[in-house]
Structure formats: C-alpha cells, structure tokens
C-alpha cells in the first residue's frame, strides 16, 4: 500500500540515498511517485530530503555532541532518524518542537529501533534545552564556516582564497537557499512582454532579469512547469539567468555556422538558434545520445529548425566536416556554481575529481579550437567557480596556443533584437565573466571569449 506518512517517506528516500548512493533528485522522484501524499506533505518530504542531504555535516556534528556513541558506531538508520529530527528542530520553524520529538520517536519505533527510541527522545530534548546555538564550532575559519554551513573544508578553503571571509560566508548561505527558477523567452516566437502578460493573467508573478534581456524569474514556487502558460507553444525554456549570458557572449549572427561542442540537453544550443533568428546552421555535439535526444525534443517544441546533432566523443572526432564561425565549449564541470540546485553535489566532488575534470576540459578546448574558422570565435564556459577548471584551463590554453587571445566584452556587442547590451557590466579586467551567486543572484558561472590572431570577423 502506498505510504501516506511524509516522515516515513522521507526516511525511506534517505535510506535509498545512503545505501545505494542514488542521486538525491532521482531517489526523491521515485519515492514521491510511489507514495500517496497531499500536496503540502509532498513539499515537506522534498524539504526534508534536500535539507538533510545538504546539512549532513552540521547534523552529524550535533549527533557527535549529544549522543553517547560516536557517529560511526551508530546504526545507519538511527543516524538518519537523528538527521530528520534535528533538521526539523534546527532549520524549520513551522513544526512545533514537541511534534518533532513525538514524530521522530515514532519513526524510530516503526522502523525496528523501538529499543533506541529513548535515545532519540533524549538527544532531541538535549538539543532543545541547550542555550544559544548548541553547535560547537572549531576555531580555524575554513572549518568553522564549513561546519556551520555544512560543506567539505576543501570547498570553503577555495572560496576563502578567492573571496575572503565575509563573502565566503555569504556564498555559503546563498547555496543553502532554495534555487530560483528562470525562463528564457523564445524571442524567435514571442516577445518578453507577451510572456509576462500571459503569466500575470494566470496569477503567476514574474520579474525581469537585470542582465538577460530574454529572462524572467518566477517569484513563487510553481508546480509542474509543463502546466505553465506558453510551454506547449514553445514560448520559453527553463534556463538560469547566468546560463543565458553564454549565448550573448557567443553572439552568433544569422547565417553563420556555429558548433556547440558539448550541447546536451540543448539549453544553449536552442538559445543560439533563437539569437540567430533560426537562420544558419548550429551543430550540437555531445557524447550522450539520450541527453542529446532532449535537445532535439526541445528544438521541436521551440520550433527551431537550424539545429543538427552529432553524437560523438569530441576527443575521438578527427576533423569536423565544417569549420565554425563560432564554437562553444560549455564544458563538463564539477558544478560548484550550482550547489543550491544539487543537494548532494558538494559531497560528490573532491579535489581529485576537479583535477580529472580540468584535464578533460583542457582536451575538449584544444579539440574544439581546431574547428574554428580563421579569425572565428571560441567561447569556453562552465558552471563552476573553481579556478582550476576555469582561469587555469584558459591560462594553459593561451600559453600553449599563443595565436589565441581573450576578446573582452565590448560595451556594444551585436545582439540582434536585444537591448540593452547585457554583458559589459559583468566583465572583469582580465576579460572574462565570472558570476558569483551572492553578488549577482544567479547560478555561479565562468565564461570567456577567445579569438585567434587572424583576420577578425
Ligand atoms: C555542462 S554540460 C552541457 C550543457 C549544455 N550546453 C546545455 O546548456 O544544455 C556538458 C556536456 O558535455 C558532454 N561531454 C562530456 N565529455 C564529453 C566528450 N568527451 N565529448 C563530447 N561531449 C562530452 C556531457 O555529456 C554533457 O552533456
């Protein structure tokens, strides 16, 4: 029989994530589809699962402080039950504390831990009775911020080097907030004002994005995006404001040949086609066939016909059949700029995985550079904030390929049908764009435009 107790459903989902190392969003979708829950309870399950995964480090530290046995010696299920109880007490204010204690003790009893239900009761009550913030923090700044906001030390250390303490604290807080949802209006079909009006008529509040002339941000949570006005008609795509900026940096012109070397699922490929008025050719390449199929479906929904696709590992393609006026490498990366969207990403990456990714990124950039027409444009972008995947990849590429240079964003870049020019205020003195979420209220992104020193276009 489908489960109708939200805490039991959340517990089962967390168990699957814990035991099978399932991705959080996959386990959540599966768990919710097998349950029979009211809308409000589905919301609670989502909050509990994402929250517990995200705040694991802080929650473990609290268990370490209040339980008699160290965390490694606790039964795995007991640890999850502590997590659920402590998360509600610490981070949710809509559930009265006695109700949290009662439901968490019941959860222990109903899941084979009746003998330990007194321990659960004791730990939660100790937490409630402690004055001030019970979480004891270490002195060194990186460990302190990492434990308080629940990140691995190495990520916080990287941010501290780039930002200093105050901004690192702001960034840590930002990535623990629920993600925003942005739309990119398909200006090939409809105007931003028309979409804005359709949403307002449906009682859904939106606001314009400051840096993206095609962008609208939804101001409240909505249900299934497919039900929103204009989805079926291809009026818009879901794309964060910062990802939209990549299209403007490529700045494709009608009639050109553009190669999107890491294209799936086509968020930027379709944007390029929109900016070109669907005139010209866009090659969308990716090694993942299933993800590339989504790009084709998206292009069909958006009524874009200038996109061709190629399934291949970039590194194994000899020479591309055509050269591009512009080539985009939206590289696979650690995603450290989108940690708010992926609750488990902070635990899945490591200094070693970043090192491996930077080698791949370098290879992809080198290969894609050979597909650019003389004097053409090459854009490199990632949704990570790690210099090893960004600035250092570009630095090495320029060292090894002295004929290439960075082309800073001009204050008047050509963007047909669009004004004002969105990118100039975001450009750094080095010539690239690095979006810091806590400064710009968008996903973290890095993007840079390069040109070889031949006749420019
Ligand atoms: C950041 S995602 C691209 C997102 C896409 N540009 C968008 O906006 O929707 C990176 C993509 O690179 C692809 N990729 C990774 N390694 C590759 C390789 N060696 N050759 C081709 N594609 C690769 C992945 O399959 C993934 O779809």
Automatic annotation (TrEMBL):
Catalytic activity entry: cytidine(967) in 16S rRNA + S-adenosyl-L-methionine = 5-methylcytidine(967) in 16S rRNA + S-adenosyl-L-homocysteine + H(+)
Active site (UniProt): 383
InterPro entries to which the protein is assigned, alphabetical: MeTrfase_RsmB-F_NOP2_cat (IPR049560), MeTrfase_RsmB-F_NOP2_dom (IPR001678), NusB-like_sf (IPR035926), NusB_RsmB_TIM44 (IPR006027), RCMT (IPR023267), rRNA_ssu_MeTfrase_B (IPR004573), RsmB-like_ferredoxin (IPR054728), SAM-dependent_MTases_sf (IPR029063)
Positions contributing to S-adenosyl-L-methionine binding: 262-268, 286, 313, 330
Gene Ontology MF terms in the entry: methyltransferase activity
Source taxon at top rank: Bacteria
Record-linked Gene3D superfamilies: NusB-like (1.10.940.10), Sun protein, domain 3 (3.30.70.1170), Vaccinia Virus protein VP39 (3.40.50.150)
Keywords in alphabetical order: Cytoplasm, Methyltransferase, RNA-binding, rRNA processing, S-adenosyl-L-methionine, Transferase
Record domain SAM-dependent MTase RsmB/NOP-type: where: 171-453
Compartments (UniProt record): Cytoplasm
Known EC number: 2.1.1.176
Signal peptide (from-to): none
First-tier enzyme category under EC: transferase
GO biological process: methylation
Similarity remark: Belongs to the class I-like SAM-binding methyltransferase superfamily. RsmB/NOP family.
Function statement: Specifically methylates the cytosine at position 967 (m5C967) of 16S rRNA.
Name listed for the protein in its UniProt record: 16S rRNA (cytosine(967)-C(5))-methyltransferase
Organism: Roseofilum halophilum BLCC-M91
